[in-house]
Structure formats: C-alpha cells, structure tokens
C-alpha cells in the first residue's frame, strides 16, 4: 500500500488535484464524503468466458493464470447446473468467479406481471448459484429498449423499481451476493444510462444486496467524465466492464481512442479493489494474443492513472 503523499504525488494530475482542492478547500486532509486518498485500489483483471478462444475451459484458465488474470465472468443462463463444474475448474487456481452476466428471462419493468415474475424467479436461481460460487454479484438491466410493453419513464416506475430491487437485493444478500444494476448507452436501454444514476438508485434502496457496475463501452457515449462517474458511484460500484471505445472490441483495437486513464483515476480515488472485466469482441485474427496485448495496455494505463 502506498501512503497518501505518494499517492497524491504519483497518481493525481494537476487538474484533478486542483479540482479536489477546490472541493475540499484543503489538500492532504480528509477527503470529501466517501472518498479516500489513501487508496486501497487494486487492478484485478477478469475475462468473460468467451474472451479467449480455446478448445476447453481448462486451456483458457491456464492462459489466464499464466498472465495474472484472476477473475472469470460467466453467463447466468443455466448457471445452477454448472456450479460443480466451475468449482472444480477453479479449485486450486488463483482465479475467482468475478461476476455473473445476466442470463435471466423476462424483465423487471415489464407492464406484465408474469414477465416480471419470470425475471424474479430466474434471477433467484442465478443468484443462488452466484452465492455458491462466491461471485460478487449478478448483473441485471431493468429494461432493454427492445423489451415491450414497458412501464413509462416516470417517478412511479422509479419507485416501483426501487421496491422490486429491494426485494431482490434482500434475497441476494441472504445468499451472500448482490444484484448489480448496469447502465447501458441510450441505443440499448434508455431507462438507465449513467453510472451515477444507478448509484443513486442503490442509495435510495439502501440495501447491501443492491449495487451497480460501470461499463467503459457504454460510458463512452453517456458520461461527460469517466472519473466523475466512478467517483459518484463510490462504494456502490462492484464491477467494471471494459472494451475498445469505438467498436467494442479488445481494448487497444481502436488505437488512441482506447484511453481509460481518466476512469482509472476515479477507480483509484474510490479505492476500487473489485474486478475490471473484458466484455468485448475482437477484430484481429489472433484473439488470444490480442486479449493479452489488451491486458498489457490496461496495466500500463492503470500505472499512468
Ligand atoms: Mg457490460
């Protein structure tokens, strides 16, 4: 762990330092509410199950382990039937299940009760498996644009959302995990687009089983400041997705556009120590080499932040 003075010296650009000096009126003392300059931040990289191209999961895990990738994100569909398989695949390895990516049926903000209940019931199954696997949480989107009929974007719907997720969060907490709201860009889910909004919903619900994630791909379109978005989310932020910023391929495939330094600064400021997980395709022929080059780019930019 580095001390606060070193952290300030090495990690904060002048602009950020000025901003925080302006916020607090003083530098080198207690930080604004919920922020810690004495950061415990840690870069933990995770791959989704499809990030590498190999014949078997064992081969993928071998490559990940050799390259210090310590998280595996899997899909929620059918997860309950994979608990033993995944537990034995990870046994004795320095790799944990990072998060569970969706996989539920129905959706939370449906006008139809049966569709909402289908979402709740399939989420219960995934959450149960997630708890058994020690996952930090299960990612959920309240409603994609394509899902109809959907509740209108009103205060009443927001109140309903909070109540619905409070119940789901309690179930998740009882199973040792969380549900994590994922904001998407407006083309995919107009309802919830910004990390701070997701965090604010978490704050209103005030349930330890309800958290949020930030996805650099979606943030590219929706956030005026990556750093600001992550700082807003603070302790509600439990997971991060990463992809190239123009085409959602491997980080680095979009060249100079793939800059995550500002966001990483935000993560360092909130002492983020959960996973940053690849959620992306790949343009290049050699998928595995491109993924590992992306890991190097992320490590380099984390140091720069
Ligand atoms: Mg995502």
Short structural summary:
By secondary structure, this protein is α/β, with parallel strands linked by helices. The protein has 11 helices and 8 strands.
Provide the fold topology.
Layout: H1 4-11, H2 14-24, E1 44-48, H3 57-66, E2 71-75, H4 83-90, E3 96-101, H5 113-133, E4 138-140, H6 155-174, E5 179-181, H7 195-205, E6 210-215, H8 216-222, H9 226-233, E7 237-242, H10 261-269, E8 275-278, H11 287-304
Parallel strand pairs: 1-2, 1-8, 2-3, 3-4, 4-5, 5-6, 6-7, 7-8
The structure holds magnesium ion (MG).
Magnesium ion binds at residues 182, 215, 241, 279.
Q: Which small molecules are bound?
A: magnesium ion
Strand content: 5-15%
- On the 0 to 100 scale, the average pLDDT is 91
Shape: globular
Q: Which stretches of 5+ consecutive residues score pLDDT under 50?
A: 1-32
Q: What profile does the largest beta sheet have?
A: 8 strands, parallel, barrel
Protein architecture, described:
It is a single chain. With 305 residues, this protein is an alpha/beta fold. The chain contains eleven helices and eight strands. The chain has an eight-stranded parallel barrel, surrounded by five helices. Helix 6 links the parallel strand 4 and strand 5 (179-181). Helix 6 (155-174) packs across helix 7 (195-205) and helix 7 (195-205) packs parallel to helix 9. Mean pLDDT is 91; it is low at 1-32. Bound molecules: magnesium ion. Magnesium ion (MG) binds at residues 182, 215, 241, 279.
List keywords for this structure.
single chain, 43% helix, eight-stranded parallel β-barrel, disordered N terminus, binds magnesium ion, alpha/beta, 305 residues, 8 strands, 11 helices
């Amino acid at each position: 762990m580095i001390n606060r003075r070193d952290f300030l010296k090495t990690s904060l650009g002048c602009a950020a330092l000025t901003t925080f000096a302006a916020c607090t009126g003083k530098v080198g003392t207690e930080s604004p509410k919920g922020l810690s300059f004495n950061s415990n931040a840690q870069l933990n990289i995770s791959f989704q199950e499809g990030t590498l191209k190999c014949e078997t999961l064992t081969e993928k895990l071998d490559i990940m382990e050799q390259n210090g990738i310590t998280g595996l994100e899997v899909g929620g569909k059918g997860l309950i039937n994979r608990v033993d398989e995944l537990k034995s695949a990870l046994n004795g390895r320095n790799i944990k299940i990072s998060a569970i990516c969706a996989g539920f049926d129905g959706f939370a903000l449906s006008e139809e009760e049966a569709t909402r209940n289908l979402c709740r019931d399939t989420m219960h199954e995934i959450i149960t498996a997630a708890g058994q696997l020690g996952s930090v949480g299960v990612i959920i989107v309240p409603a994609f644009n394509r899902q109809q009929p959907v509740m209108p974007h009103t205060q009443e719907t927001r109140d309903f959302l909070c109540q619905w997720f409070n119940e789901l969060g309690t179930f998740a907490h009882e199973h040792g995990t969380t549900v994590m709201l994922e904001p998407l860009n407006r083309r995919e889910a107009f309802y919830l687009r910004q990390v701070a909004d997701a965090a604010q919903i978490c704050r209103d619900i005030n349930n330890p089983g309800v958290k949020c994630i930030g996805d650099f791909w979606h943030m590219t379109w929706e956030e005026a400041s990556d750093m600001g978005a992550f700082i807003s989310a603070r302790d509600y932020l439990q997971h991060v997705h990463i992809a190239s910023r123009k085409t959602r391929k491997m980080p680095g495939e979009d060249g100079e556009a793939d800059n995550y330094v500002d966001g990483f600064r935000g993560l360092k400021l909130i002492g983020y120590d959960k996973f940053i997980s690849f959620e992306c395709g790949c343009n290049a022929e050699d998928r595995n080499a491109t993924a590992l080059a992306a890991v190097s780019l992320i490590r380099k930019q984390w140091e720069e932040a």
